[in-house]
């Protein structure tokens, strides 16, 4: 009963998917909203790239400051996610992976996924598909499966490795943990079937560089998916959400994780992140097609997706 109620709450205000129009194949004499030369998104990016929450900082400082935040919260990250979202983040990640539609033999990259939450779901979905198809036997195709978890923070990766061992995944040849930067990935061009990033892209210094790298490493036909805290678009709900975010979340961070400042940053970083339409435009400007997004819980979170065609 409780699980059914949680699922209804997670998706009760889910809006229909919004698909951005594809860019016109021929160059237009004047910039259009989806034209790759559009200026407003770039101007917004420059402003965002030099912010740490509401503070203005030098670009070279931001990655260090964000690193300090996640080093501080790594050990309590999952517990705080459960508390802040009342456990709904688990259902949101389930939704993300269902949209990915993992398949045996795929090469998948999960960025900013140090704790393994998304990677484990992808692996479990692939195993489920493979076992149903072959009645429990491991096929050669399934053995070709490889999931890479990439995170810039070693403390977050250590949490993920520990969780993998607890789940019995420490011996999985198809699961790799890589310390790396979303803006400068170490993977080859066109090497991945799928790319996911959950609650991570708002923390990079240059969002456009992270999107360009996602596009570079994906194969033709590969799917980009991003789950991120976003902008509430229901007026009354927005007021309640703002009070909750700025009053209760930092207090919970102080009581549970002993770190109010880090959770104050997390709340502020959500407000500084581009809204759903602007972020969708940025994804399209990176080269992706069939760009769309789906709001969950009135826009508390959004799942953006695009294809490399």
TrEMBL record:
Tree of life domain: Eukaryota
Keywords (A to Z) from UniProt: Membrane, Methyltransferase, Mitochondrion, Mitochondrion inner membrane, S-adenosyl-L-methionine, Transferase, Ubiquinone biosynthesis
Any coiled-coil regions, as ranges: none
Residues engaged in binding S-adenosyl-L-methionine: 115, 151, 181-182
SUPFAM superfamilies attached to this UniProt entry: S-adenosyl-L-methionine-dependent methyltransferases
Enzyme class: transferase
Pfam assignment, any one: Ubie_methyltran
Complex formation: Component of a multi-subunit COQ enzyme complex, composed of at least COQ3, COQ4, COQ5, COQ6, COQ7 and COQ9. Interacts with PYURF; the interaction is direct, stabilizes COQ5 protein and associates PYURF with COQ enzyme complex.
Protein name (Swiss-Prot/TrEMBL): 2-methoxy-6-polyprenyl-1,4-benzoquinol methylase, mitochondrial
Lineage: Eukaryota, Viridiplantae, Streptophyta, Embryophyta, Tracheophyta
């Amino acid at each position: 009963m409780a699980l059914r109620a949680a699922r209804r709450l997670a998706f009760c205000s889910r809006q229909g998917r919004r698909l951005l129009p594809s860019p016109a194949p021929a160059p237009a004499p004047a910039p259009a909203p989806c034209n790759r030369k559009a200026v407003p998104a770039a101007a917004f990016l420059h402003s965002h790239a030099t912010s740490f929450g509401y503070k203005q900082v030098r670009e070279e400082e931001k990655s260090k400051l964000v690193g300090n935040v996640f080093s501080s919260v790594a050990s309590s990250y999952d517990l705080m996610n459960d508390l802040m979202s009342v456990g709904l983040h688990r259902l949101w990640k389930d939704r993300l992976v269902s949209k990915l539609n993992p398949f045996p033999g795929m090469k998948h990259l999960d960025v900013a996924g140090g704790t393994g939450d998304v990677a484990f779901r992808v692996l479990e979905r692939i195993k489920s598909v493979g076992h149903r198809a072959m009645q429990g036997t491991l096929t050669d195709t399934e053995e070709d499966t490889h999931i890479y978890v990439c995170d810039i923070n070693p403390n977050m990766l250590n949490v993920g490795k520990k969780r993998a061992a607890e789940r019995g995944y420490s011996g999985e040849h198809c699961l790799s943990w890589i310390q790396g930067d979303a803006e400068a990935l170490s993977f080859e061009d066109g090497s991945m079937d799928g790319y996911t990033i959950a609650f991570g892209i708002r923390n990079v210094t240059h969002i456009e560089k992270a999107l360009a790298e996602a596009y570079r490493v994906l194969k033709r036909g590969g799917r980009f998916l991003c789950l991120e805290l976003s902008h509430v678009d229901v007026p009354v709900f927005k007021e309640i959400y703002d009070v909750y975010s700025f009053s209760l979340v930092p207090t919970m961070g102080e009581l549970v994780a002993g770190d109010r400042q880090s959770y104050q940053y997390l709340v502020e970083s959500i407000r500084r992140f581009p809204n759903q339409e602007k972020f969708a435009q940025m994804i399209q400007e990176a080269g992706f097609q069939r760009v769309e997004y789906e709001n969950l819980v009135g826009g508390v979170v959004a799942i953006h997706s695009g294809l490399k065609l």
